Amino acid sequence: MEFPRSAGVLLHPTSLPSDFCIGELGSEAFNFVDYLVKSGVSLWQILPLGPTGYGNSPYAALSAFAGNPFLISLEKLNTDGYLSKEDLETCPGSNPAEVDYNLVTSWKVPLLEKAAHIFLDKASNSEKSDFIKFCDENSEWLNDFALFVVIKEHHDIKAEKENASDSRWNYYWDKKIILKQKQVETEWTLKYMAQIEIKKVLQYFFFTQWNSLKKYANSKGISIIGDIPIYVAACSSDLWSHKKMFYLDKEGHQTVVAGVPPDYFSTTGQLWGNPIYNWEKHEEDGFSWWISRIQGMLKMVDIVRIDHFIGLEAYWEVPANAPTAETGKWVKAPGRKMFETLKEKLGDLPIIAEDLGVLTKDVEALRDDFDFPGMKILQFAFTFDEKGKADSKNMFLPYTYSSNSVVYTGTHDNDTTRGWYNSISAREKDLVRKYLGRPDNDIVWDLIRETLSSVSNYAIIPMQDILNLDTESRMNTPSTLKESNWSWRMSKKSMADDTVNRLKELIELYGRLPE
Among 147, 148, 297, 333, which residue's CB has the most CB atoms within a 10 Å radius? Predict the structure, then answer.
């Protein structure tokens, strides 16, 4: 697909301002859309929207299809009559600069469940009809997901006693449940029908609110870039419901896991631990699971970024018992066959390929043959070659870009641009200054300018860089379980007119204003 020259902002909804413990899909989300419009921005990039589990990572969701109830707007539930003003006033208060996941779990989730109960008791006939329609249209994943989450919550108490992480669920759950035996599944469904229904209502709340926000954004000329993690989480309804599609033993345990080899993020590689697809089974099934996944995503967003696109050409397979990712091996994947099938079924796909890492000629061919734009990270551009000279062949230098690419100052996995610049050596700083031809008294905005002026059709700036924030506002540090990961939030005062005007001036100067 053709991607018109545009500018975007990277901000996950959890990072939106709110009066509560996490960003929500309420008024502040709509205000953020208005902020983008005033700034001349026409793209809003987000992270995966799935329900998060252990570690709060959006890249380790409990489902590849469900939405994250944490994002449901309490304000909207109050307006709709499912929560009272007094309910919202019980919030004990939280740091407005960060997401308080403990408070989300202990305070917000019970309120969400209360609202779901009230909905089931008091919703109008029209609302209940919409809910039934939602359940029918999403039954392919919704029934298994709701049951899985209820079962998981019942086993979480046992997990806490055994100090077991979510990824070990298929070791401490009852064996018959792990293997999804029909009789036991039916027993659970009948016994916990009321709890299962609550989970479905929460999904209905999420998708109703998300669709309203997306409709508003689109009406204002804002396209939303969503994100698909290439793998599902080890603890997910996807693995539980589709075991034959993954490499598991007869007990339901993973035999191999996903990761990446040593790279610039980690000297021992990254041991993600995700289940690896049994691609032979996916091919035999006509890639139906992937077709459903992409279809579902394109209902939620306008453009899809596929995280770790490289793994669709060849993936790093690590033995399940390996302590690091160093002992893995490359295995070919049928990405070409899959995209040919997707194109046949769905037409041209608005996909961005996250092609960072070991970029082979085969990966480039897969990306380019389907005309998917790849990614460029400006923070990676300023390096030295083996002779100690500035590496003029670095693929992240702007003069090497093609127009069919997406350039970022940095991503959610990088430090903020200010934090990055403060951390590099004096020699590297000198190289940055020489390349830009400027001093470093306004270095972040100089790098934003360089990003927006590049030939890449899409230029995306993390909100932290627009606000010129330091390392404490970093979104994620890969291969770590830091409490600060995924917790940054912007303040209501951040969207100041001077920042709006400065950003719009550059977007207009470099031909990225929407037509």
Answer: 148
Assigned CATH for 6-509: 3.20.20.80
Produce one character per residue of 295-318: b if its CB has 16 or more CB atoms within 10 Å, e if not.
ebbbebbbbbbbbbbbbbbbbbbb
pLDDT tens track of the chain, all 515 residues? Answer: 779 999 999 999 999 999 999 999 999 999 999 999 999 999 999 999 999 988 899 999 999 999 999 999 999 999 999 999 999 999 998 889 999 999 999 999 999 999 999 999 999 999 999 999 999 999 999 999 999 999 999 887 666 655 555 667 877 788 899 999 999 999 999 999 999 999 999 999 999 999 999 999 999 999 999 999 999 999 999 999 999 999 999 999 999 999 988 877 678 888 889 999 999 999 999 999 999 999 999 999 999 999 999 999 999 999 999 999 999 999 999 999 999 999 999 999 999 999 998 889 999 999 999 999 999 999 999 999 999 999 999 999 999 999 999 999 999 999 999 999 999 999 999 999 999 999 999 999 999 999 999 999 999 999 999 999 999 999 999 878 888 999 999 998 887 889 999 999 999 999 999 98
Q: How far is Cα 24 from Cα 32, in angstroms, rounded to an integer?
A: 11
Determine contact, residues 486/476, Cβ cutoff 8 Å. yes
Whether 428 contacts 382, CB under 8 Å: yes
Length of the chain: 515
Q: Which residues contact 318 (CB under 8 A, 6 or more apart)?
A: 256, 257, 258, 259, 271, 325, 327, 328
Question: What is 399-434 written as a DSSP string?
Answer: GG--SSEEEES--TTSPPHHHHHHHS-HHHHHHHHH
Task: Give catalytic residue positions.
Answer: 307, 354, 413
**Is the distance from CB of 275 to CB of 248 less than 8 angstroms?**
yes
Residue type, 78: N
Q: In the structure encoding, which two tokens stand for residue 332, read together?
A: 């070919």
Please tell me the pTM assigned to this model. 0.96
Q: Give CA–CA dist 88/70, Å, rounded.
A: 15
